[in-house]
Amino acid sequence: xxxxxxxxxxxxxxxxxxxxxxxxxxxxxxxxxxxxxxxxxxxxxxxxxxxxxxxxxxxxxxxxxxxxxxxxxxxxxxxxxxxxxxxxxxxxxxxxxxxxxxxxxxxxxxxxxxxxxxxxxxxxxxxxxxxxxxxxxxxxxxxxxxxxxxxxxxxxxxxxxxxxxxxxxxxxxxxxxxxxxxxxxxxxx
Length: 189
What we know:
Blueprint: E1 21-23, H1 30-43, H2 48-55, H3 59-66, H4 77-84, E2 88-93, E3 99-104, E4 116-120, H5 123-131, H6 150-165, H7 168-185
Parallel strand pairs: 1-4
Antiparallel strand pairs: 2-3, 3-4
Helix pairs in contact: 2-3
InterPro entries: Cro/C1-type_HTH, Lambda_DNA-bd_dom_sf
Protein name: Helix-turn-helix transcriptional regulator
Region (Disordered): 129-149
């Protein structure tokens, strides 16, 4: 991508600095985001029970999301947008080259034409970002990690993707292997 001066953007894949809300476990914007989800549901003309059925959630879980006590995973947002007939996009790259988790037009904002930009946090995403060379979210630690080679980054991404689909027994085996199995595989000095 090129900026207005024709220079290649250096932001490809970086989180967007133009974020309106950050949501996830313990985030302060969860309540605002829940209100946005509720407005989208109302605009779609859906009761909480009907929306929960369409989304495969319980009505109580949807209520907890709408009051900010729970947040959906980013991966669920395509289904939410679709079920509510909402205008938005999930995991798109902005014209400036920034990665944007969720763009959604808030029906309560009137016709200002600007989408709400939402960034999602989770332990899995933060681990992935650290593994791919990002800075940790803890501002007290200022050391950047070495960026792994592209092939290693792709391999790490594939492993994390596979682990998200693994059952509990498989996860325990992988953890045990990583903690002890790889040391047993090394020949003695």
